[in-house]
Each structure stands twice: as C-alpha cells, then as structure tokens.
Amino acid sequence: MRRLRACLGAAATVGIAAAGTTALVAGNASGATSALSNRWYAAAPYLMPLDNDPPDAAAIMDATGLKAFQLAFVLAPNGGGCSPTWGGTAAVSSDTAVHSVVNTIRAKGGDVSVSVGGYGGTKLGQVCSDAATTAAAYQQVITKYGLRAIDFDLEEPEYENTAAIRNEIGAARILQQNNPGLYVSVTTAGTADGTGWFGKQMLLEAKSQGFTPNNFSIMPFDGGFNGAASQTGALTNFNQILQSTFGWDQATAYAHEGFSGMNGRSDTGEIFGQSDFQTVLDYATSHNMDRFTFWSLNRDRQCTPPDNGGRTSGTCSSVTQNAWDFAKYSVKFAGTTPPTTTPTPTPTPPGTACKPAWSSTAVYTQGNEVSYGKHNWKAKWWTQNEVPGASEWGPWQDEGAC
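Above: the chain's sequence. Below: its structure in token form.
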C-alpha cells in the first residue's frame, strides 16, 4: 500500500481535555479563506509537498481546474515524541514551506486537506499515550493550517497495532466533535474481498466508539488487482462489509464509502490507465459514493524518458500521458468540467501479444510465460501465488509490455 511513499521521501500545545472543548478552525493566522464544498475535499488527490519532486500546485490548478489537494503525510518525529511532523523530520510548529504551498493554493481559490499516517514511518497513534493526546497533536495541525478537512490513512504497520488504531479512531472522533463541520476521511488497505482482517477490525473499533466519518475509503491496488473491474468488484464487496458492520442499507453504505487509487504503475507492477480511472469514476458517481482520490499528483506526469510500465516511480506514472491527466478525474468527481485536452492513448507495442493471464492458483515452473498488468513475465523457477513484479528479487522476469 503506497510503499514508495515511505521510501521516497516544539509546537504550541493545543489542549483537548474532553470531547466538549471547542477548537476554532478558521479566522487564525493560517490564511484560511472560505471553505470549499465537501465534494472538493472528497476529490482531493494526494500531494507530497516536501518530497518526490513536488509539482507546482498553481500550475496544476490552471491546467485542470483542480481546487483541492490532500497534503501528505503527518507523522510522529523520527527521534520520538508525540508532536506532529511532516514525514517524521519537519516539525509542523516551525513549518513555513508547506504553509507557503497552502497559501498559494488558497490565493487561487482552492484549499487543502492533510493526511496523517500512510505506509511506513511512525504514526502519532503509536507513540501518543491515548486518544486525547493523539487528538491534541493533530489539533496543532488543524489550527496551524486552518484545516476544514483531514484524512486518517490507517495502513501497515500501524493498523496491525490494536492500541494505535484505538488512539487514531478516538482522535478522529474527538477532532470531529471539537471542530464543527470538519470533513473526516479514513483510508485503509483494499483487497479483492473489500478489505482485510485488520481493515475490518478498524471498522469494528469505529463502531465501538460510535464514530462515523464522512467516509471509509479503500485502496484497491498492490493486492493482485488487474484493472478497473477488479477495483469496482472490491468496492462492491467493501460496501457489503460496511452494511454488515454498521447496519446500514446499501445506499447509506455507498454514501460513506470512498475510493483511493494509484495512477499508472503500482508498487507491485499493476497498471491502472486513464480508461481504468474513468470506469471507477463512473462506478463511484453512479453509486453516489462519497470520495474519489488517488496517489498521487507527484506521479501524475509521464516519465522522462517515457517508461511505459517498466518501473514504479514516486515522481511519474510509468504510463503514456499528458501532465495532470489523472487529476482531471478528480475534477470531474467534484462536479466540474476540466479544460479540454486530447487524451494520450497508452500504446500497445506492435507485434507483442500477451501470454495467458497469470493465475494465483496455478503452479509455474522455470520458463513458463504469463501476462499480468499488461506485461509478459517468464518464471525463473517454480512458483505459485507470487504476483509478477511484486518483488525485484521474485520469481518473475519482466519481458516487457504486451
């Protein structure tokens, strides 16, 4: 789940003694302006403002009509402690670089949400003593930037820690109560069945605390997915999990469900092109889902030289595209028509046919060939249920696009 994010890449305490304490979100030194509609916060793609060759947010806004950005990631300090930092290294309390990005976006009529957690690193829920102190740390971020939206990205390794998840869900509940109107999303790993055991435990924790965010979003990638059909299947299954967990009907569950994808080539070699994004977008809008986002704007540009799926990068998509093509799907979800451009199709190399599709149940021996993620692969040795491209040192040799 977004492995590239982890690899690439003394505050004034705001006390929260109890859920009844009210924290002001706007009207401080954050430069906050009028809030956007929740639909924009729901459509905000992820942007790392300090790592992975950050793109110019203003240029993206001009080219696509995008108004909202999901800034990532707030973590605990690498050296220990319960105070918010960007990426574990840059203290929120003394930050000016991210604040400058926020001000630029707001000056053009946009706004930001902040994502806490992510894959890897040490999360505040792991080191803060309880939900209240965890919430106090996150409140510093809300107050610093005048936030009207926040995302709890709960995945490996934190979501395997029961106490940490209790702190994170408890903090989300406190922040929701203390900041009226705050848009709260909770993002976790996706599987073909919707989400895995740890994701289901997280939902049960939310239920036990009486916490309902604006949405629970899954990330249907890095788990053996193969195009949009596998992703919409996971979203359908996740909807059923939400129904059974919270006692919601189907429509209510979709109204609290979100999608968080990965554009281009995923960490495990899956390929999600523009046609896949359009299919999932159609599914999300036709089912009145609450959120449609992706990882990430740092990757929403073609690799130089064009890579066409041969590697996964934190700074480009590894598929043929014009810059910011994937951001336009977020704009559409928000209900706005992006500027018109001619999409660049992903070419199929002439004369390269795809081998039979890889199967998780089949046994393969040295020399067997399969196709997966629009690439052909050759087995180096005996293997079963090992996803092609999941590991550089794995049993599959990449033979190129097909």
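Residues 228-246 form the longest helix (19 residues).
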